[in-house]
Amino acid sequence: MVNNTKITVKNFNAWFDENQVVKSLNMEVFSNEILGIIGPANSGKTTFLRTLNRLNDIEDKFRMDGEIFLDNQNVYKDIDVNLLRKRIGVIFALPISLPMSIYDNISFGPRRHGIKKGLDEIVENSLKSAYLWDEVKDRLNESALNLSGGQQQRLCIARTLAVEPEVILFDEPCSGLDPISTAKVEDAMDKLKQKYTIILVTNNVKQAARVSDRTAFFLMGELVEIDTTEKIFTVPSDKRTENYVSGRFG
Amino acid sequence: MKKRFNPKTSQKIAFTILLLSALVTIIPVVVIIIVVIKNGISAISWEFLTSMPKNGMRAGGIFPAIVGTFYLTIGATIFSLPLGVLAAIYLSEYAKENRFTRILNLGIVNLAGVPSIVYGLFGLSLFVIYMKLGVSILSGCLTLAIMELPSIITATKTALNSVPKQFREVSLSLGATKWQTIRYAVLPYALPGIITGTVLSNARKTGETAPILFTVAAFYLPRLPSSVFDQTMALPYHLYVISTQIPGIEKNITYGTALVLIIFTLSLNLVGIIIRTRLRKQKKW
């Protein structure tokens, strides 16, 4: 596998008020991989994720330093924030469907970027890529809130795909889903990595083992270890990683 | 320490006190409505509602007062709704928490506490005299509009805050700008609250006498206003006039006028509630 670097993080620190939540983080994310990020609660995983597409900007108490590059462009300096968020999509822990039709949910993003023609195709393709098309193709104009939790999460994936991102961030996307819905979302992720770079934050260690190519272990705001998933789960170089993945704490 | 009541008894006492308090609060409303209907219903007729007052307001109808109040209600909303909503959007979505916005918010809260007669005098000096708009519908509408602003701003802020933060995050995370996010992912869902707040505050202000006293209301003007620079009669002021300034007026005319005013404000409330229910059905989450 040729490792093209998609995202580079250099000396990244983050605070909420006086509370440092991420400490001098250095890491890289490669194109078309699924990078799993595991770690106990309050280890800075989600904060790191939300910094990548600058969603933390809307938090008053958030402060950061260091640099993050997307394709060698500094996300805080070289890229317009709205364009950055179009290129780096995010799927939240709880599926948040906007209270409008399925069709309007999917076309919400493209419409905001001024696309008026070809919306039907975008909606169809996005839903197909998220493996939801067959279940909803006859009721695109129904409210998205009528869908089940698992369907709504795939709807959120489709909605993100509709703006043609390059990177997709998954923030514990299956924490509220049953095992069957989880399997469907994981299937979708596995196929999506052919086209997209995926970062998956998860509390579920087994999920990381199942779907990610590489895995990073965060603890108390520090990156303890990042390596191939196989290595992390068989011969981790740090004792703490071993303890965590074998279920001895966390 | 000795227990004075067992838990069951104290529970009963508490329940009774709470129930009585609730009942006491609605007694005045019920009594007012009953008294007004009982004394005023005999005056209500098609002629009373649609004809001009006659014989020094002792006979005839109250048509110009109804029309005047209608104009004032609509006119005030035309000014206060856009201004109030836009200000509230700025304050709740854009403004950062700092001394400037704290002063701004404090100002709005205090604006709500200003006595209505002070608004009347303010309207007289600013709109009627300084801006030379005269005693006119326009001056009255502007005065009422300023008086309505705090409640519209507060209602809009509450409505905006009740829209889940996640809607904003979803919209932003799809690359929408802040304004697009407000326009398409927040405002549509805040609309029921905004409309209800506006209509309810309208209903309240429609019944006010003091702010229109010096700015628009005519003592006796048995014709319809011809333009926004014309004076007009209005229900609350007309009611004040006929109940204090006109000797020998039939009691049922006074109460009939009060009844019309009450029905006017209650139907505004009803309209607000209907709009809210309709919109809620469409935008449910």
Task: Give your account of this protein's structure.
- The complex is a heterodimer of chains A (250) and B (285).
- Chain A has 250 residues and is an alpha/beta fold.
- Chain A is built from ten helices and ten strands.
- Chain A has helices at residues 45-52, 81-87, 102-112, 119-129, 133-136, 149-161, 179-192, 205-211, 229-234, 239-245, and strands at 5-16, 19-30, 34-38, 62-70, 73-74, 88-91, 167-171, 197-201, 214-219, 222-228.
- In chain A, the strands form two sheets. Chain A has a six-stranded mixed sheet, sandwiched between helices. Chain A has a four-stranded antiparallel sheet with strand order 2-1-4-5, covered by helices on one side.
- In chain A, a hairpin with a 2-residue loop joins strand 4 and strand 5 (73-74).
- Chain A starts with a strand and ends in a 5-residue tail after the last helix.
- Chain B is mostly helical.
- Chain B has helices at 7-40, 46-50, 63-94, 99-113, 116-130, 137-161, 165-173, 178-206, 210-213, 235-244, 251-282; strands spanning 53-54, 59-60.
- Chain B has a two-stranded antiparallel sheet with strand order 1-2.
- Chain B is globular and about 70 Å long.
- The interface between A and B is medium-sized, with 27 and 22 residues.
Helix fraction bin of chain A: 25-40%
CATH topology value of chain B = MetI-like fold
Can you say what the CATH homologous superfamily of chain A is?
Answer: P-loop containing nucleotide triphosphate hydrolases
Largest beta sheet: strand ordering of chain B: 1-2
Strand content of chain A: 25-35%
Biggest sheet descriptor of chain A: 6 strands, mixed
Which geometry of chain B do the CA atoms define?
globular
**pLDDT averaged over residues of chain A:** 91
Q: How many H/I helical runs of chain B?
A: 11
- CATH-defined architecture of chain B: Orthogonal Bundle
Apparent shape of chain A? globular
Task: Report low-confidence residues of chain A grouped into runs of 5 or more.
Answer: none
Tally of helical runs of chain A: 10
Instruction: Please name the two chains that share the biggest interface, counting residues whose Cβ lies under 8 Å from a Cβ on the partner chain.
Output: A-B, 27 and 22 residues
Radius of gyration of chain B: 23 Å
Number of domains of chain A: 1
Specify the CATH homologous superfamily of chain B: MetI-like
| CATH architectural group of chain A | 3-Layer(aba) Sandwich
Oligomer: heterodimer
CATH C-level category of chain B = Mainly Alpha
Q: What is the alpha-carbon Rg of chain A in Å? A: 18 Å
